[in-house]
Every structure is written in C-alpha cells, then in structure tokens.
Amino acid sequence: MGRDTISGEWADTAVGFDGNHAKIALLQTPGGQDFVELFEYIFPMAVETDPTLPNAIGMHRVAFSVECLEAALDAAAKHDCYPLRGIATYEDQYRLTYVRGPSGILVMLAQSLK
Q1: 27-78: per-residue pLDDT in tens?
Q2: What are the residues whose beta carbons fall under 8 Å from the beta carbon of 64, sequence distance 6 or more?
C-alpha cells in the first residue's frame, strides 16, 4: 500500500516513549480487506530488553484495525492490557494506541476516522 516515516508528539503518545522516529511500510493482504504494517526504528536505535520495548529487535508486535477503539480497550482491560501511554490521533485519519498483550507482545489498536 505504501511507505512512510513517522515521528512527532502523536507517535510518542501512541508508541509510549518520546522522540521516536521510524520507517513504516503497509502491505495489503490478499483480498484487500486488511494490511500488515512493517516497522523499523530510525531513532532510538533498536535494543534488546525484558520486557520488550517498542523499539526492540524481533517480531514482538501486531496491529489491528478496530471499529471502536473504546470497545477494543474495554475488551483488552478485561485481560489486564492497558495503553502504554494514551490514545493518539494521527492526521485526523486514525485514533490509535499500543497495549502490552499476552506474552509481552505489543498490540496496536487503530480506529479509522474516515
């Protein structure tokens, strides 16, 4: 679907730490109804940590498009999964946040505002 770089206050809020800058690529799934986001940090440099931080190397996060972010967060809270920092708005296109899911996996929840 496309490539871009991300940074700024909205990205800091969504990801959960300050000053991040990353390259992203969106790949559309067969059938065209979903996509996979590939994410590479430019800053800060990727590091190994326990628990895994948002900029750690490896497969540790997944993103989901949701119809209602509040409903998704209510469901996540039932499993003790809460936003890392808060809910961000990206260019009046998405409301999004990251939660730490089971096994430490970071889960991005994004609601389209279109």
Answers
A1: 787 788 887 787 788 888 877 777 777 777 776 778 888 999 999 999 999 9
A2: 72, 107, 108, 109, 110
- Name residue, tokens 């119809």: 67
Both structure tokens of 74: 């209510």
C-alpha 26/C-alpha 17 separation (Å) is 22
Contacts of 79 (CB under 8 A, 6+ apart): 101, 102
Using DSSP bridges, classify how beta strands 94-100 and 88-90 pair: parallel, antiparallel or unpaired: antiparallel
Buried b (16+ CB within 10 A) or exposed e, 45-84: eeeeeeebbbbbeeeebebeebeebeebbeebeeeebebb
Whole-angstrom Cα distance, residue 104 to residue 66? 20
Q: The domain 2-112: what is its CATH number? A: 3.10.180.10
Give the largest CA-CA distance in the chain.
Answer: 37
Q: Is the pTM of this model over 0.70?
A: no
